[in-house]
Amino acid sequence: MPSKKIAIRPYDASRYLKTERDQQAYLDAALADGDPRVIAAVLGDIAKAKGMSKVARAAGLGRESLYKALSPDGNPEFGTILKVMQALGYQLHATAAE
After folding, report:
1. DSSP per-residue string spanning 35-64
2. If DSSP codes are grouped into helix, strand and coil, which group holds residue 9?
3. pLDDT tens per residue across span 19-56
4. What per-residue confidence (pLDDT) applies to 40?
5. How many Cα atoms occupy the beta-carbon half-sphere of 84 within 13 Å?
6. Nearest 5 degrees, angle CA 40-CA 25-CA 16?
7. For position 1, what pLDDT does the model report?
8. 39, 41, 51, 67: least CB-packed within 10 angstroms?
9. What residues contact 86, with CB distance under 8 A and at least 6 apart?
10. This prediction's pTM
């Protein structure tokens, strides 16, 4: 019996971030994790869901450089993170740890 070919594609979280609430919960979870690479990658997923070109323009950054900076292997500067967060409509707030 011939085997059936199964089409497999890499998981892309941005396909499932359809609402603002989903996006915010995803970012909150990444911030709670505290890993800078996870936070950058999550911002990249959210930017991709909203349209990377649109976010790059709003942040004043190049689309390709933004893809690279917000990839799981990227290492963006803190200023880039702040620009992207602002372009996505988020503000960074500090609260006292319990």
Report:
1. -HHHHHHHHHHHHHHH-HHHHHHHHT--HH
2. coil
3. 999 999 999 999 999 999 999 999 999 999 999 999 99
4. 94
5. 30
6. 80
7. 66
8. 51
9. 58, 59
10. 0.87
